[in-house]
Amino acid sequence: MQNEEMAHIKQSLEIPVMMAPMFLISNPKMVINACHSGIIGTFPALNARTGEILEDWMKEITTALETLKQENPDKKIGPWGINYIVHRSNKRYVEDLQLIEKYQPSVVITSLGDPGPVAEIVHAYGGIVFSDVINLKYAKKAIEKGADGLVLVAGGAGGHAGTYNPISFVHEIREFFAGPIALSGGMSKGEDILVTELLGADLAYIGTRFITAEESTASDGYKQTIIDSSIEDIMYTDTFTGVNANYLIPSIIESGLDPEKLQRKEAIDFSELDNKRAKAWKDIWGAGQGIGPIHKVQTVAEIVDELKDGYNQSIETVANKNRTFIQK
Ligand SMILES: Cc1cc2nc3c(=O)[nH]c(=O)nc-3n(C[C@H](O)[C@H](O)[C@H](O)COP(=O)(O)O)c2cc1C
User: Fold this and answer.
1) Read out DSSP for 122-152?
2) How far apart are CA 77 and CA 35, in angstroms?
3) CATH of span 2-217+289-327
4) Which ligand 1 atom is the nearest neighbour of the CA of 218?
5) Helix (H, G, I), strand (E, B), or coil: what is residue 286?
6) Residue having the nearest C-alpha atom to atom 30 of ligand 1
7) Which of 17, 18, 19, 23 to mutate to test the pocket of ligand 1 (most atoms within 8 A of CB)?
8) How many angstroms separate the alpha carbon of residue 99 from the centre of ligand 1?
9) 306 CA to middle of ligand 1, Å?
């Protein structure tokens, strides 16, 4: 059933990509433009500061996508999705779930907890639930509790990331799970999408590549730092939230901290920061290892066009290489 739903979603896509939800970065405009470009657009529910704002955003997205579909009946318009925290720390757990039931996003990505109650609601309207996981234990638990698909957050991903090599991670999951897989971790180019498919995953789940989108809520300084940085400027630490995540080292330094002293949580003396406690995500900027190929600010549509070109070229390259190999 979940594979049928996945196949249905893929038919509405130009390339098998989900723009990943990002705290303080994703917004309705990005989502609408991603869907308009033929990929899945998503955002974290908590980016809307209140339930009322979230409802406004959901209205804006559903109305815009409906209009786009009517105006472009032959164009592939991707579905939208939402990231929903299924943890008791989420004070809007009930409120946001009611909005999900009302506005029916095709894709719901759950983080941190039991996807069961959400799955019941999402299945009733024909949507699909992905749970993001960083290891096999969480993957098995998510499937057991009712998730249809898995987002594999591999090493090098932006935000709270795992450490597993993406290739090995997919292989291990495919040992026991035949359902939909979205693979994430450092993917920034079109060829990465083909690799995702070759590995047997269904979707490339791409976050960092979209931080520098013109429409994103990231500050200009944040975008420029990504453009100026490389893989060596990314640091994996649990210092800021208690959970390991990848961050931009220049933003750590800019906040008055010494990256060398961040290895142990207690090593930071936040009082050194003039009582201006640097906040994860707002001051300490998240980004994954895939920042190397990001060279300028572009619209979401331009980014997706580049991904499409790279994807199509890589298909051709593989086909040509194959031919050469056979001729030899
Ligand atoms: C700045 C930033 C914020 C993020 N915030 C969230 C979030 O709120 N919820 C979530 O499920 N994932 C979040 N993520 C993780 C992404 O959804 C996704 O897993 C990741 O970006 C994929 O790897 P990539 O950045 O290498 O493409 C965040 C990632 C980044 C870079």
Assistant:
1) HHHTT-EEEEEESSHHHHHHHHHTT-SEEEE
2) 5
3) 3.20.20.70
4) 1
5) strand
6) 159
7) 23
8) 22
9) 20
What residue type is assigned to position 264 of the chain?
R
Tokens of 57: 């955003």
Distance (angstroms) between ligand 1 centre and the Cα of 23 equals 7
Quick check: pTM over 0.85? yes
Provide the residue ranges of all domains of the chain, joining segments of one domain with +: 2-217+289-327
For the chain, the first-to-last Cα distance in angstroms comes to 44
State the alpha helices, DSSP H only, in 199-273. Answer: 220-228, 249-254
List the pLDDT tens digit at each of the 328 positions of the chain: 678 889 999 999 999 999 999 999 999 999 999 999 999 999 999 999 999 999 999 999 999 999 999 999 999 999 999 999 888 788 999 999 999 999 999 999 998 789 999 999 999 999 999 999 999 999 999 999 999 999 999 999 999 999 999 999 999 999 999 999 999 999 999 999 999 999 999 999 999 999 999 999 999 999 999 999 999 999 999 988 888 999 999 999 999 999 988 755 544 544 444 434 578 899 999 999 999 999 999 999 999 999 999 999 999 998 887 777 766 5
